[in-house]
Design goal:
This protein has 374 residues and is an alpha/beta fold. It folds into 2 domains: 169 residues, HAD superfamily/HAD-like (Rossmann fold, 3-Layer(aba) Sandwich); 198 residues, Calcium-transporting ATPase, transmembrane domain (Up-down Bundle), CATH 1.20.1110.10. Helix content is 58%, strand content 9%. It is built from 16 helices and 8 strands. It has an 8-stranded mixed sheet, with helices on both faces. The chain starts with 5 loop residues before the first strand and ends with a helix. 40% of the residues are buried.
Length: 374
């Protein structure tokens, strides 16, 4: 992340960046340097947790937009510190400014937020902040004059005189990485769930599987290589999703309810069509077994390409990136070549243009299903 003047000390921070829901700032001067509306669009809460007096903090918070109507300004840190644990948990989300805070007070608020499922980033420069930076899901040490202990305790070091400003694009980069991982997971789970279900049902029926080992290896090969490259083409800033990450265990933030809905809908459609074609295809299409198996496999691969296109649009509607479509076209060309090779080397029959059009036509119903699932 050289363009942001940032050094990543902990590699896992690249994934955590995309899950951040709350950011602690430790200085009033940090709030002029930020564009606060952008944080709101990202669904990120900003909390000013400092040791300065209340009047200065309240003024800065109001001017920056951090002090929202439903927020709480802690005038004396004892108002929070002396509460019961359950009351602290209830209040923690609504705190916008907490003045007069010691490092232990910051740590207490951080722990309460994490207990509620928040993923918290802390920006600090003083060595006194090192315990909080270590406890945070993501610790930023900011500025060229950051203390040595703060740097050692941080996951990311940001240099430069406007270092706090760079937190926003860095979080945007992380959000993009998170969403791309989510999309790739959706693609892979759809392939594996549908193929396993198809083959398991036919195994129970004492029937030969229509999608054999070689065909499955081919699907996974092109989707692992070209699918991953295609999903990685999304711009880290201009095209990123602005949805607030779901709270809860970190694994569930990738496999959200929305993602599972997409997986189930697409897998069910693929399984249903393949089984209908397998058991009734010769009668419906008036063709032989070799042509039928070639059509089933071709339909199945085409569905995965459409799932890839749908997956790219999980959180962003625009798909302007030319390289993405070049990679999709490359997958289509490779599939044509593979089908021609398989017609020579295996039990499959070569498909004519009408049969190709039928495979693609049936597979394209995955598009409206994907839109409905979203």
């Amino acid at each position: 992340m050289e363009q942001y003047q940032a050094k990543v000390q902990n590699l896992s921070a690249s994934a955590t960046l995309g899950l951040i829901t709350t950011v602690f700032l430790g200085k009033t001067s940090d709030l002029m340097n930020l564009n606060m509306e952008a944080y709101k669009e990202y669904g990120i809460d900003i909390k000013l947790v400092v040791d300065d007096d209340l009047n200065t903090e309240t003024l800065m918070a109001n001017n920056s937009g951090i002090h929202m109507e439903d927020g709480i300004v802690i005038e004396r840190v004892s108002e929070f510190r002396n509460l019961s644990k359950s009351d602290q948990l209830k209040m923690a989300d609504r705190i916008r400014v907490m003045a007069g805070s010691s490092p232990s007070d910051k740590l207490l608020l951080l722990q309460r937020l994490k207990k509620k499922g928040q993923v918290v980033a802390v920006a600090g420069a003083s060595s006194r902040d090192s315990p909080v930076l270590e406890e945070a899901d993501l610790g930023f040490s900011v500025g060229e004059n950051a203390g040595e202990l703060a740097r050692e305790a941080s996951d990311v070091i940001i240099m430069g005189h406007r270092s706090v400003t760079n937190i926003f694009p860095i979080l945007g980069f992380g959000r993009c990485v998170c969403k791309n991982i989510q999309k790739f997971v959706q693609l892979q789970l759809t392939i594996n769930i549908s193929s396993f279900t198809i083959n398991y049902i036919l195994l129970l029926s004492n029937m030969r599987e229509p999608i054999g080992l070689l065909e499955l290896l081919w699907v996974n090969l092109i989707m692992d290589i070209f699918g991953a490259l295609a999903l990685a083409q999304q711009s880290p800033i201009t095209e990123i999703a602005v949805d607030r990450p779901n709270l809860g265990e970190k694994g569930s933030q990738y496999l959200t309810k929305r993602v599972w809905t997409n997986i189930v809908v697409q897998a069910c459609y693929q399984v249903t069509v393949v089984l209908i074609l397998y058991f009734k295809g010769k009668w419906i299409l008036g063709t032989n077994q070799k042509v039928l198996e070639a059509m089933i496999f071709n339909f199945y691969v085409t569905c995965q390409v459409i799932v890839l296109i749908n997956a790219r649009g999980i959180q962003c509607g625009r798909m302007k990136n030319n390289m993405f479509w070049v990679l999709v076209a490359a997958m289509a060309i490779l599939q044509v070549a593979f089908m021609e090779i398989m017609a020579v080397l295996s039990h499959m029959e070569r498909l004519d243009l009408k049969q190709w059009a039928l495979c693609v036509g049936i597979a394209t119903f995955s598009f409206p299903l994907g839109w409905v699932a979203k």
